[in-house]
Specification:
- The longest helix has 33 residues.
- Strands 1-2 form a two-stranded antiparallel sheet.
- The protein is globular, with a radius of gyration of 21 Å.
- The chain starts with 18 loop residues before the first helix and ends in a 14-residue tail after the last helix.
- Helix 5 packs parallel to helix 7.
- The chain is built from 13 helices and two strands.
- The chain has 388 residues and is mainly α.
Length: 388
Amino acid sequence: MKFTIFAERPVEVYRKCDIGLLISIILMWGLGLLTLYASSANYALRTFQDQFYFIKRQLLLSVVGWILFILFASVKISFIKKILPTLVIGTVILCLLPFVPGFSTPRNGAHRWILIPFIGETFQPSELGKLALVLFLANWFDKNQVLEDSQEKPSLLNPIIGLAVFVGIIMAQDDFSTALFMFAIGLLMFYMAGVKLGKTIPFIILAIFGMLIFVFSSSFRVNRLIAFINPSFDTHGYNYQTDAARSAISAGGFLGQGFGSGLEKINRVPEIQTDYIFAGWAEAMGFVGVIGYFILVLFFAWRAYRASYMCKTRFTALVGFGCTSCVFLQSLANCGVVCGALPATGITLPFYSSGGSSLLVSFCICGLLINISRSNGEEEYVYEETYL
């Protein structure tokens, strides 16, 4: 009996991966490492007496990330569909573990992380939840056509419940920004699958009502909202980080200060290595660098959306669309927060921000996109192998 996981595509269903997409992923990762070192060296030296602390950690995680990237780029799409129930249920369980004593590592009252046994590192399950949600919705819409010209239109109750479960658990973790982001990605997949806007309006109204109650139930979230609406509010507190980031961006000017010139303004930004790392890139590279970053992200999105559009099967097309949207829209959202165009959130910048959960899941998502760029209707073929 033959056991196989990795794709052994017949010639007629094989094509080379999208080189442009692969290059854009490598560039985002490489430039992210450079930006992380330049932005965090002073903070790491003051805090850990090692200016290479964050970059060494990111490099170690990148080794694991590239292994996951190769795995997701090589595994059969049909195998992913085979293990999908286990993957989705397992992710839901992981998202519940932050509430379980012994696994949870609360920070500032939020239950978003779990402790990995024997390693001592933490993991944020909500990052994996984004990928699991995309796969769940893509699989359901693949099996249940909801296009306008369909004769039989199945109930949307199951995908709505699935989306609500993921969003509800993440909100309970006190991670409103990630929950809102997942809700947006879910709605986009609904519309991409052909669901009419009118069918989702009651659900959207109910979700918005619930989110408003959640926001106004906490003085911290209310103050953050006020700080966004009124930039002069509490400039030494809620608006301090955003003001410091804007100052760093302004200091970059047109051509930037350069990575080797000793960046000064970013030293005022609290924990620059995480959510506000784009300020470090902007100060180092200036307006030209900011435009260059957006060109890179747009190029990545173009190649990834194009690969998804060229897929011959509904599942791979929807997975490609959802995964691309996760990286692309998260990048734009993070930049919007740093520039002050969006309220402050905890959303990271893919491949740039320090953080193992975000980096590893970003590698998994991009590996899957490379796999999809090679796919040419693989799932339409029936394989006789037993999947391990």
